[in-house]
Amino acid sequence: MESLFAPVILGPAILVIWLLSSVKVINEYERGVVFTFGRLRPNPLLPGFRLVIFPIQRMMRVSLRTVVLDVTPQDIITRDNVTVKVNAVIYFRVIDANRSIVEVENYLYATTQLAQTTLRSVLGEVELDDLLSKREELNARLQMYIDKHADPWGIKVSMVEIKAVDLPQLMVRAISRQAEAEREKRAKIIHAEGELKASHALLEAARKLAEEPLTIQLRYLQTLTEIGVENNSTIVFPLPLDMITAFQGSPAARRALTA
User: Same domain, yes or no, for 71 and 144?
Assistant: First the structure.
């Protein structure tokens, strides 16, 4: 009886173990890449309960979620021979699960190495000023190059962003001096433009005053009023320039000056 009872129990137990090994649950953000006797199944398994016949078939899970990859800082020599450290962040995702398994051994490691080498090669072709000012253009170039080389692996690179550019201290001080000189230049240009506009305004005012001589007397009185508001003891006697010129032209004035 015991010899007959053992196969009755052993058979269902083996069936249960086989079912547990063959039934797979695939999440919504995953795809199942299946190999049957080593041959790739054309279409990956979709989310839900799926049967993978053990040991005939083998399944590998591939996540389709966007991966945020932080590229370690890279030592880069720019086109104008300045050494800087640059790091970046890359956003990519798997769009073809089969190719991401078959075409490359480890797509995450491969994308990381590709990002590092591309970062050095692309940024090494630009000057420091472009690296600091043309971030959007360089991000677009990096995204295009990395996406082009990662496409055979079933990888789609959606965005590349340069995070930080670390400059040597000597270069930081040089850039600070350059920025200070640039601001001083702008200040001098603005001051000169103000003087030019003021001279034009004074010339126009002089022409207006010359049209009516009485206005100059009103201007004198206004000046005296402004001085008197300050409660000081200064007394100003405005004299017309014509009177001073006539006095200087007289013989008595010339004798007084020569004496």
Answer: yes
In one-letter notation, the amino acid at residue 167 is L
Distance of CA 18 to CAs 6, 26, 47, 51, Å?
A: 18, 18, 21, 11
79 and 25 within one domain: no
> How many residues in total does the chain contain?
259
Examine residue 230 and state whether it is found in any structural domain, yes or no. Answer: no
Pairing status of strand 48-51 against strand 23-26: antiparallel
The answer to whether 182 and 164 have CB atoms below 8 angstroms apart is no
* Cis bond before residue 55 (omega within 30° of 0): yes
Whether 28 is covered by a domain: the verdict is yes
111 domain residue, yes or no: yes
Which residue range is the domain that position 138 belongs to? Answer: 67-167
Residue 142 one-letter amino acid: L
Amino acid at site 164: A
Q: Report helix, strand or coil for 125.
A: coil
If asked whether residues 71 and 87 sit together in one domain, one would say yes
Structure confidence by residue, pLDDT tens digits, 157-185: 999 999 888 887 776 676 677 777 778 88
Burial class (CB in 10 A: 0-12, 13-18, 19+), 146: buried
Phi/psi at 226 (nearest 5 deg)? -65, -35
Of the candidates 141, 128, 147, 148, which has an alpha carbon nearest to the alpha carbon of residue 85? 128
Tell me the pLDDT tens digit for each residue of 110-163.
Answer: 999 999 999 999 998 888 888 888 889 999 999 999 999 999 999 999 999 998
Are 219 and 135 contained in the same domain? no
Cα 58 from Cα 22, distance rounded (Å) = 9
Within a domain: 253? no
pLDDT-based confidence at 255, cuts 50/70/90? low
pTM: 0.64
